[in-house]
Amino acid sequence: MSRTFDIIIVGAGASGLTAAIQAARNGAEVLILEHMDKAGKKLLATGNGKCNFTNEKQGIAYYNGKNPAFVLPVLKQFGLRETLDFFQELGIYPRNKRGGYYYPASGQAASMVEILLMECKRLHVRIGYNVGIRKICRDGNGFTFHTKQGFFYSQRCILATGGKSARKTGSDGSSIQYIVDFGHKLTDIVPALVQLHGKQSFLKEIAGIRADGSIQLYIENEKIAEDTGELQLTECGVSGIPAFQVSRHAAYGLLYGKQVRVSLNFLPELSAKEANELLKQRFSVNGRGKNAAQALIGLFPQKLNSVLLQEARLLPEKAAQDCTQQEIQTLTERIQSLWLDITGTKGFDHAQVTAGGVDTCEINPQTMESLLVPRLYFAGEVVDVDGLCGGYNLQWAWSSGYVAGNAASASIRTNQGGNYDSNSAVKTAN
Ligand SMILES: Cc1cc2nc3c(=O)[nH]c(=O)nc-3n(C[C@H](O)[C@H](O)[C@H](O)COP(=O)(O)OP(=O)(O)OC[C@H]3O[C@@H](n4cnc5c(N)ncnc54)[C@H](O)[C@@H]3O)c2cc1C
After folding, report:
1. pLDDT over 70, % of the chain
2. Is 15 near ligand 1, meaning CB less than 6 Å away?
3. What CATH number has the domain bearing residue 400?
């Protein structure tokens, strides 16, 4: 196989495959170097195997990082409309489900991987699997890739290696070394969209409960983030989409040694006054012949009722109608604010994404090209951009992959006065 290419992309994940397709559509000769035995392993795991690949709601509010506005020029070039068209053209019929989440109608993430690989094949994109890259060096007007399988050369390099989350899918942080060697800075990296661990012993009693509610995250007693939806209580803490959405802030708080707490509200739709009225009603008129535990039946799952009473220091067997206004008030407060001291997260291996990455101050958002190393590009989660749950991380992967692939291939064309001749500017292997 030839060892010289116009563009070498490191990583055959969501962003790398998109970059390869766009670059090859522009006429570039593309090689992807992948250290796993297959492409798109993380993509296969997305959306519980169904792949929530984008969302009808878009905008800066759905993205995090040191500079969330960095995503705007990228999404402007390849946003929701372009993503739906791109996939529809390849054969993915998009189905819009709850909350604007888009999935392939097949209901299978595998179909996303398959159509991307079919398009790569049609465009003669080469993919080298099980490739162990030792280092990547700048070399004249291009790059030399030192790998266990020998040398490869290219005019442009796109790093699309993902973050450090879900290591078994291939994104293991091994590319950090190449990035640092190029002189780039990385912002602090933490797991995000991940379960939170709490220290309260009552967690063991409510493990397994799923209840609608909201979560508010406090760092040093200041409310930083909140979300509403189905909370999943576990032996170690709290999971579910609302917990995922606030988890990046918790992880950064803990990294910087701050006090991190969450407050869980199991009646988020009611004001404090309305909740108190509801409880009073249940414990007075409707509480005839019931004890405190029985007065809560039908409101929350049974195990949760026990913990809420315990936290409110109310004996479960006390007659409901004998409970004082103060006791009912305290119970209402616990229902709307069950505190957990957060001690950690479930870690990178269980996180859906990595928050932090290549500092966006050092990347041109119009092209995804490095501002430090000409002809080097970045795409996807390797960059300091992380999205909320709901298809935003894949949207970022498609968008930044498209922009990097497009700009890298267009810059070769421009250098060659508009005629694309991939053989003229590449070195031969020695
Ligand atoms: C369980 C789970 C569910 C998710 N669900 C969703 C969802 O429904 N919607 C959503 O928007 N997002 C979801 N995500 C997040 C989303 O999958 C990622 O943000 C996205 O895949 C990132 O794309 P990427 O191309 O940047 O990185 P990746 O998809 O991680 O691809 C990086 C590739 O680079 C390769 N690589 C890494 N280092 C090297 C190296 N040194 N040499 C060679 N190759 C290397 C890896 O093997 C991998 O193939 C989920 C993530 C997980 C873990």
Report:
1. 96
2. yes
3. 3.50.50.60
